[in-house]
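Methods: example folding runs. The two proteins below were folded one after another, and each record is reproduced exactly as written to the output file, sequence line first and structure-token line second.
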Amino acid sequence: MTDKPALYRDLARQLEALIAGEPDRIANAANLAALVYHGLPDLNWAGFYFAQDGELVLGPFQGRPACVRIAWGAGVCGAAAARGTSVLVPDVHIFAGHIACDPASRSELVVPLIEAGRVAGVLDLDSPLLARFDADDEAGCAALVRLFVEHHARYSAALSS
């Protein structure tokens, strides 16, 4: 990939078109997972885990079947949720406590969904390639997550007024 920032700008435009006018969070998460999975090369999983009762619960995704529940703080997803910041792991086999849902995964990027100052879930990307993700991927995925979160915040505010 030669111009990742341009690729992520294009994905952001596509996401805006996909979620425009749609208030359903699950439907929009499903479309975002599919957009990322098919729009980025070298992924073997892309999807969401949502915060529920002190743990992360599987949401819409693309890829092989996945772990359904992840404890807060466990694995890469749980670490990102507990820290409230993105976690980029070049080699999951050297990440202490990595949860191997798919043994083919070698690198991972997890971006938290921050809603009203708290972690509402995470976007999780896995790749079968070592060091697949970099700072451009982290920034690009963070921008996509912000679009997703801001869209739903606007709908929530409109519904409550």
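Second run, written to the same file directly after the first:
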Amino acid sequence: MPQQRPFMIGVAGGTCSGKTTVSERLAELAGDDALALIKLDSYYVALSHLPLEERAKFNYDHPDAFDWHLLNDHLDMLAKGEPVPVPIYDFTIYDRTPNVRMLHSARIVVVEGILVLWEPTLRERFDLKLYLDTDADLRFIRRLQRDVAERGRTPDSIIAQYLETVRPSHEQFIEPSKRYADVILPRGGLNEPAIDVLRARIRELAVFE
């Protein structure tokens, strides 16, 4: 019997809009056997050839920051039922590690990240395209708290990066990609009624299809 193509979902939105929260809640509901979760952050281009100071200044919110070719190749493999070696990225050194995480194909594949609705080849793969629309001030506060607590960065460096690259890239690339979404979730990860609808659809896919 031929391998059934996975149902692919793209979850996009600005930095700290709730993409990871929503995606992980769906993954927990479906379970590892039914849902494979890929984070776009794993596919930042390798920058080991640059010194740390230059890597820190790189624009990580620009489309050129991602290895789209590798991600699309991995999704081709998952569509065929094959496992893929997902890169492991270390945000404290702004680079990939030598390690990978083996991810097995599943009935549902979720790809989450700021620009997953921007790249045309990737976008066309999705059976369902979501955009989490969260207020900019809330997203910035979350990013500030996260990067201080989890990535060892100073508030001044976070603010500078936000003003120099994060906000301009959001306005130029991420926000315009909203027009490709099938469903837009106002308030992002805080929109419980919308998340409940998504959970019901995931449950149907995981159990019945």
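Comment on the second run: The CA atoms of residues 34 and 45 lie 29 Å apart.
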